[in-house]
Amino acid sequence: MHDEKDLRIVQLKMENQKLQEKIDKLERNVEALTQAVLHAAKQRFGASSEKTPSTVGQASLFGEEDADNIPVPYAPVIQIKEHKRPLRKKGDREKLTLGLDRETVECVLNPDESACGICGSELKVIGKKKIRSEMEYIPAKLIMKDYVQFVFKCVECGKNDENPYDAIYSAPVPAPVLTHSIASPSSVAWILYQKYVLSVPLYRQERDFRRMGAALKRDTMANWAIRCAEDWLKLLYDRMHEQLLKCGIIMSDETTWQVNREPGKKASSKSYIWIHRSGSYEGPPIILYEYTRSRSGDHAKEFLAGFSGFHLSDYSDKKVIPIFYEFRILSCGLAA
């Protein structure tokens, strides 16, 4: 009797051990799956390289507001008296689309329908009326332009002793925006507009170009932007810089910026973008951005070289933007 009891105890212990091992295995699987879900959620919804961590008390220099950071005021329930809504004035819809080209779609009868259905006589137009207006979107498309240069030769030169040599002429060819590249002014302008006006990252533009039939890599687009900035836009930037230094007041502010790949710096380290702009009454507004690797006041000193007016900044450290007596700059702080 005792032997059967002892045997049963041993069997139960073995079953309990197996069940415990199974529970441990399931718990490990649950933990692994939980970590996978958290990692996937972080990849999809977490912070990416497209966003820069915000600084407390620092306003955005680019006019962008994060919807999550905009406070939603409490809206109390207010009883509003019944009222009649005024009718929309005629012509309001036309005012919204004044900048668009207009086309007219004429709806006429087909030739086989231009006879009277009763007597068979010919139908003539006696009037027309506008039925509706539609705003149509025409999708963009990509094409390749091949520039072919024609070469010409004089039919008389080279035939006599007076002009013994052939006269060869080549037709002029428009200069490319970038040498040894398929870039065109329109394609570069579109990439820059998407990137810096609509805030569309290059990797998304790469997908969009692929859908339109062009395998344009994001590295290529980045190189186009850099080369065009150096070859073309820097001329405009330098000219605007010259005009800005002639103003009586220059206002500056800085914000942190993260650069993923920069020689000699970690991706997690802070860089800075300065904004310098003219006063409200200085004529045409001038707003310039300047990238700096650090917050040193030497950057502002170099940018403001030749300026002899009032400089306004809200940064509290006087070492960053000191009073440059050699340039006759009077630095003005802001009181919060």
Any overview of this molecule?
The structure is a single chain. 32% of the residues lie in helices and 11% in strands. It is an alpha/beta fold. Among the domains are: 87 residues, no CATH class; 85 residues, no CATH class. It has a five-stranded mixed beta sheet with strand order 5-4-3-6-7, covered by helices on one side. Strands 1-2 form a two-stranded antiparallel ribbon. A hairpin with an 8-residue loop joins strand 4 and strand 5. The radius of gyration is 36 Å and the shape is extended.
Shape: extended
Helix and strand pattern: HHEEHHHEEEHEE
Strand order across the biggest sheet?
A: 5-4-3-6-7
- The termini sit apart by 91 Å
Main β sheet profile = 5 strands, mixed
Structural class: alpha/beta
Cα-atom radius of gyration: 36 Å
Average pLDDT, rounded to a whole number, is 83
Strand content: 5-15%
Q: Provide the helix percentage.
A: 25-40%
Number of strands: 7
How many helical stretches?
6
The unreliable regions are 318-323
Short description:
With 336 residues, the protein is α/β, with parallel strands linked by helices.
